[in-house]
Amino acid sequence: MSITVKDVEHVANLARLALTEAEKEQFTGQLNAILKYADKLNELNTDGIEPTSHVRPMVNVMREDKVAESLSIEKVLLNAPDEEDGQIKVPAVLE
């Protein structure tokens, strides 16, 4: 499979990109080089290799949830630009 200038023009049209003729030729060459490399990878013997979604094993890197003391409403409202009835007041976004 190879990419033609017509394929590049089609994708550029879908992406609403205006490409010059030089850019079309450049992208055609670059995309064909990528496909050529992908074909080279198909030569590898992958028999007995289990499919994976990640190269490295995934582990949970997030910290454990722990109950902790929160800020008081008074301290939170000190940082608010405006306050009304114990709540942060923000400008209306709908008319």
UniProtKB/TrEMBL annotation:
Instruction: Write one Pfam family the protein is assigned to.
Output: GatC
User: Which BP terms does GO give this entry?
Assistant: glutaminyl-tRNAGln biosynthesis via transamidation; regulation of translational fidelity; translation
Keyword set, alphabetical order: ATP-binding, Ligase, Nucleotide-binding, Protein biosynthesis, Transferase
Q: Which GO terms describe its molecular function?
A: asparaginyl-tRNA synthase (glutamine-hydrolyzing) activity; ATP binding; glutaminyl-tRNA synthase (glutamine-hydrolyzing) activity; transferase activity
Under Enzyme Commission nomenclature, its number is: 6.3.5.-
Which superkingdom? Bacteria
Reaction equations catalysed:
L-glutamyl-tRNA(Gln) + L-glutamine + ATP + H2O = L-glutaminyl-tRNA(Gln) + L-glutamate + ADP + phosphate + H(+); L-aspartyl-tRNA(Asn) + L-glutamine + ATP + H2O = L-asparaginyl-tRNA(Asn) + L-glutamate + ADP + phosphate + 2 H(+)
Q: What does this protein do?
A: Allows the formation of correctly charged Asn-tRNA(Asn) or Gln-tRNA(Gln) through the transamidation of misacylated Asp-tRNA(Asn) or Glu-tRNA(Gln) in organisms which lack either or both of asparaginyl-tRNA or glutaminyl-tRNA synthetases. The reaction takes place in the presence of glutamine and ATP through an activated phospho-Asp-tRNA(Asn) or phospho-Glu-tRNA(Gln).
Per the record, the similarity remark reads: Belongs to the GatC family.
What is the official name of this protein in its record? Aspartyl/glutamyl-tRNA(Asn/Gln) amidotransferase subunit C
Q: Which organism is it from?
A: Cohnella fermenti
Question: What is the taxonomic lineage of the source species?
Answer: Bacteria, Bacillati, Bacillota, Bacilli, Bacillales
